Amino acid sequence: MDTSQLLKGVLDLAVLAVLRKEDGYGYDVLRRLRSGGLNDVGDASVYGTLRRLYNAGLLTSYVVPSEEGPHRKYYSINEPGRERLAESGKTWRSFASTLNGLLGEVA
Amino acid sequence: MNTQQSRLGAEHYLAGMRAALADLPASEVAEIMEDVEAHVTEVAAELGEDETLEQRLGTPEAYAQELRTAAGYPARTEVIAKPNKLPALSKPRIAAWLLGGATAFTLIAGTALLREAGVLLLPAAALAISYVLVREHGPEQRPMMQLPEVLKLGELLNQPAETPAGRAIAYLRSLQPAWWLLRTVLLVVAAVLLTSRDLFAFLIIAALAALAFYAGPKSKTDRRWLWITLPASALAAATILQMIDVAADSMNYGRASNSYPVQVTEQYENIYPFDSNGKLLEGVLLFDQDGNAINAQRDYPCPGTEPMIPNNKYPRPKIDRSTGECLTIPPSAAVPPSASSPPSVSGTPSSAPPTSGSSAPSSPPASASPSPSK
Predict the structure, then answer these.
(1) What is the DSSP letter of B280?
(2) Rounded to an integer, what distance in angstroms lies between the CA atom of residue B344 and that of residue B342?
(3) Which residues, in sequence order, are CB contacts of B174 under 8 Å at separation 6+?
(4) Number of domains chain A contains
(5) Could you tell me which residues of chain A have a Cβ less than 8 Å from any Cβ in chain B?
(6) CB atoms closer than 10 angstroms to residue A69
(7) What band does A88 get if pLDDT is binned at 50, 70 and 90?
């Protein structure tokens, strides 16, 4: 099964999750997702997701000047973002367990 | 892939993305580009030798499309002529053309630098105006870099590495630090050659040499240095051309004076023949071996003596400046002391070569056929 299709639905959740502990700039978030096992995640999808979450008021951003190259825009999760993470996390867990149950019957 | 190349590649890529996002609100595009610029720059720096940004990230259009979908933006709506929102005569465009024009002018006019340093005032003024027009855009000079003509130029200079042109450009780029050094040396040489003639020009060019040395590595990150480095390069190149010109001139001159000594005669202002007793001869007509009159350069003709005595009649009368009279003024210290020696070369016609029998035409006009021409 093509994981990229699955990913589309849960990328919000994944991005909020990796920002939960520590703020990060775009490439940073991308690296954390990849090192967390989401190898197929597309660069542009992550940046697009960050923008969408920001525009939805779930993230705030601030700019950190960089010595070399362009400055970096860090994203951090805010209170509405944490609420959404908790909510979506719950939904995901129940969804996953439901699906596991179905798969358990199949297998 | 070196940093210069990757930076240019990244810029090209980002320009493509901006075009693909051009229909979104400008503030949103700015926010996106802030993220993406850092990303693309970082990826570009990580690229391997033969990797391109397109291989890693897909085309700019595909990247933009994926980002739009993930961000929940509406699909691309065609915005007509959005990238051309700059009027034809915008400040960045005028600035860019002035900068280019001043550089070209410096290259051409700089070849006259050692003769007339003042020609450089024109490009200097153009550069000043150009810089003032775009000063507000900071180190990146983005509006200027995104002019279609500038992007086109960037494309030309950023050929794929596998083509011969790309290889040639990559090779030239590798020589860049050497050129920075050579440029400084050339400018210093030009400045030193000017010291005796034009102290002001010396100071300006010496300052330019120092600035250009400092600016070379800087201009990669801060485009404002281009206003120094481009004209400095042009001036240094012009200095090379001028040195070649001067060298060729002196070689030609050397050859000419060796093979045609008789031509040198024409540089004489006057000729003073003496007899073996050291007496100045007057009214002597000089001819060469072909019976042609030997004419010294004519200047300061005596008033009232026209129609003139034959051109080759020596010594020519000259105006005595103290009295205003037209006289034959003998060379003051040139009277030969003895019969055999030629007139001393330390006299008034000080540049005259010895006029001993061997170098003078052997036959006087009396034995030659021609009669003095009128």
Answers:
(1) B
(2) 6
(3) B2
(4) 1
(5) 11, 25-27, 30, 42-52, 54-55, 63, 66, 69-73
(6) 15
(7) very high
How far B51 CA lies from chain A's nearest CA (Å)?
17
Residue A61: count of CB within 10 angstroms of its CB: 16
Cβ atoms within 10 Å, residue B289: 10
- Burial class of B344 by CB neighbour count within 10 A (0 to 12, 13 to 18, 19+): middle
The domain ranges of chain B are: 3-84, 91-250, 261-374
**Weakest mean pLDDT among A22-36, B55-69, B261-275:** B261-275
Tokens standing for residue B268: 């004489």
What are the pLDDT digits (tens) for B79-121?
544 444 556 778 888 888 888 898 888 888 877 777 777 777 8
CA distance B194 to B8: 38
Query: Which tokens hold the place of B327?
Result: 């006289």
Most confident region among A24-28, B73-77, B154-158, B350-354 by mean pLDDT: A24-28
Q: CA B109, CA B123: separation in Å to the nearest integer?
A: 9
Say if residue B37 is exposed, middle or buried (CB neighbours under 10 Å; 0-12, 13-18, 19+): buried
What would the two tokens of residue B243 be? 């040195």
* pLDDT confidence of residue A30: 92
Say which DSSP state A23 is in.
-
For residue A66, list chain B residues with Cβ-Cβ distance below 8 A. Answer: 38
Of B37, B42, B66, nearest to A48 by CB-CB distance is B66
**Mean pLDDT score, A52-76:** 88
List the domain range (segments joined by +) for residue A93: 3-106
pLDDT tens readout for residues A8-59: 778 999 999 999 989 999 999 999 999 998 888 889 999 999 999 999 999 9
Residues in chain A: 107
Q: Are strands A59-64 and A72-77 parallel, antiparallel or unpaired?
A: antiparallel
Q: Please give the residue that has the higher pLDDT: either B53 or B300.
A: B53
Instruction: Give contacts of B72 with chain A, Cβ < 8 Å.
Output: 48, 52, 55
Asked whether the beta carbons of residue B38 and residue A52 sit closer than 8 angstroms, the reply is no
- More confident of the two residues B302 and B182: B182
Q: Which of B195, B194, B236 is nearest to B213 (CA)?
A: B236
| Omega cis (within 30) before B361 | no
- Strand, coil or helix: what is B36? helix
Q: At A40, which CATH number?
A: 1.10.10.10
Q: Which of B37, B65, B70 sits opposite A11 (nearest CB)?
A: B70
Structure tokens at B348: 């008034």
R_g (Cα) of chain B, nearest Å = 35
Lookup: tokens for B261: 């000594």
- Whether residues B70 and A27 touch (CB distance < 8 A) is answered with no
Sequence-distant (6+) residues with CB within 8 A of B188 are B206, B209
Q: Please say whether the beta carbons of A42 and A29 come within 8 A.
A: no
